[in-house]
Every structure is written in structure tokens, then in C-alpha cells.
């Protein structure tokens, strides 16, 4: 199981410092979610952790080794990254896409093997895409397409998956579908999953560990129920909210303050809009 951590990490685009003096440990075998306001450096941090962005200072350590000094193929055998909004060439089938996940294991001396075949088949099965293997990626629904990309990362056979906003542009049902899939992969196989999410309620529901970014570094990190408070949300997002307990999962649930249409909560004659529903 891979151990990922950062030490005094500094990241920048040109002269603009995005992350500075950031140190954190990513719990192995758990789901970690990065949260924070737009532009705070969530995706930038994920890119650095996956070795797609070279640090300005400090280091990302993979099993105690500076990831910047490791060979690309060596990293690809240990970490699988799914960037935000990936695009596949027109006409590429699901099977062809998933097979690309095995490229880090290929060489002139080691071509396609029974192990490669087994890993691709398993990735398709785990994501429920076996029946759609011959469909083109661009013909799939949003949720199916995202599952196809996740299947490609699974085919890499890594212990850690890094995903940048895997639910972006998906409706509520497909968001839950994708997060349920990742949750099951973690539960069954203890894969380390690190992802960026915007929805705080979903982040708290699925994460074992939350990292809230603010001021170019970590503002708070830990179990969602310990660190995601109204004070944290106001400090990180500049937004007041009411925090309650999710009635189904027991995790923190956030109701943002602001303007909006208000409904009188008092029962009205012949009005069943606000009557409790029991299931």
C-alpha cells in the first residue's frame, strides 16, 4: 500500500505562488478529499501529488522517495491520475480506452500479456461496463463516460487513485453513482483514493479524511466530523452556514446562509408540501 506525503511543499505558476509550506500525510487505504474555495490550489496540489507539476520547493514523497526523482513508468505503476474533464479521441471504444491503462506495464520485451487481459476485464467488471466494451466513449452518457475513465485508471493496477473533480458536470444521480463506485473500490480493495470535490455534503459523506485548503496551505485536516465546522466553512469559503447532522449518514450537513424564497414552516390547511414522509 503506497504512502503519500508532502513536506513543506511550494507550488507556483510563474511567479504566482499557489501553495506554500504545505505539509500533509495522506492516510493509506482511505478516501481523502481536498476542499476549498475556487482558486485555492486543490487541483494544483493534486497535480503535484501525481507528479504532473514540479514543486517550486519542498517535496512529494512516495514510499519515502522524492516523486520528482522517480521514473515516469515507475510512478504510473503506483499512482493512477484522472484529470478534470478528460477527452478521448473520436471513435475510441470503451475497451480501447481501458486498455490504455496497461501502457505503463508495456515494453519492447513485455508486450500484451494474460495479466494485462485479466486486469482490463476486471476493470470493466468492477465499473459495470463489460456490456458496453464495444461502444464508443463519445456515445456514452456522462456517468457511463466517467466510469469508463475510472476503469482505465483501475486497469493500471495501482494502489492509489487520484481524481480531480470526478463528479463535475454530472447530475445528482450520476454524482452519487460515481462516488458509490469509488467508495466500494475503497471498501473492497482498500485502495487509497484522493479526490477534489466541491460539494461539501458529499465530501463529508464519502471521505474518511478531509483536507481544507486556505491561505496557500492546509487550514484544517482530519475526520469530517472533527474539522468541518461552521467556523471552518466561514474561514475557508467566506460563507456563513448552519451545520446539522445528515439524517441518513450521520455526517456533517451544511445549509448555506443567503437569500432565497422562504416557506412558512407552519402547517397550512390542505397543504401537504411540508408534511413528513416516512420510508
TrEMBL record:
Keywords: ATP-binding, Cell membrane, Ion transport, Iron, Iron transport, Membrane, Nucleotide-binding, Transport. Coiled coil: none annotated. Transmembrane segments: none annotated. Residues 251-279 are annotated as: Disordered. It is a peripheral membrane protein. The keyword Cell membrane applies. It is found in: Cell membrane. One of its GO terms (biological process) is iron ion transport. GO terms for cellular component: plasma membrane. It holds the Pfam family ABC_tran. One of its GO terms (molecular function) is ATP hydrolysis activity. Residues 4-240 form the ABC transporter domain. This is ABC transporter ATP-binding protein.
Amino acid at each position: 500500500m503506497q504512502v503519500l506525503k508532502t513536506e513543506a511543499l511550494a507550488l507556483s505558476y510563474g511567479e504566482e505562488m499557489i501553495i506554500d509550506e504545505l505539509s500533509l500525510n495522506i492516510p493509506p487505504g482511505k478516501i481523502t478529499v481536498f476542499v476549498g474555495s475556487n482558486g485555492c490550489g486543490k487541483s494544483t496540489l493534486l497535480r503535484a501529488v501525481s507528479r504532473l507539476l514540479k514543486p517550486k520547493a519542498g517535496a512529494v514523497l512516495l514510499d519515502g522517495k522524492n516523486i520528482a526523482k522517480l521514473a515516469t513508468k515507475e510512478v504510473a505503476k503506483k499512482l493512477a491520475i484522472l484529470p478534470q474533464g478528460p477527452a478521448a479521441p473520436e471513435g475510441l471504444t470503451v475497451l480501447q480506452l481501458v486498455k490504455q491503462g496497461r501502457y505503463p506495464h508495456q515494453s519492447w520485451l513485455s508486450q500484451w500479456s494474460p495479466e494485462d487481459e485479466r486486469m482490463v476485464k476486471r476493470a470493466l467488471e468492477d465499473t459495470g461496463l463489460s456490456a458496453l466494451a464495444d461502444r464508443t466513449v463519445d456515445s456514452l452518457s456522462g456517468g457511463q463516460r466517467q466510469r469508463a475513465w475510472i476503469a482505465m485508471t483501475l486497469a493500471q493496477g495501482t494502489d492509489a487513485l487520484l481524481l480531480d473533480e470526478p463528479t463535475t458536470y454530472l447530475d445528482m444521480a450520476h454524482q452519487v453513482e460515481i462516488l458509490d463506485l469509488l467508495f466500494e473500490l475503497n471498501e473492497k480493495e482498500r485502495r487509497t483514493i484522493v479526490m477534489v470535490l466541491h460539494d461539501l455534503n458529499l465530501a463529508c459523506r464519502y471521505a474518511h479524511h478531509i483536507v481544507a485548503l486556505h491561505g496557500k496551505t492546509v487550514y484544517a485536516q482530519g475526520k469530517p466530523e472533527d474539522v468541518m465546522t461552521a467556523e471552518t466553512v466561514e474561514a475557508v469559503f467566506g460563507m456563513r452556514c448552519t451545520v446539522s447532522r445528515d439524517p441518513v449518514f450521520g455526517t456533517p450537513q451544511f445549509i448555506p446562509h443567503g437569500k432565497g424564497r422562504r416557506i412558512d414552516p407552519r402547517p397550512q390547511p390542505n397543504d401537504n408540501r411540508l408534511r413528513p414522509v416516512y420510508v
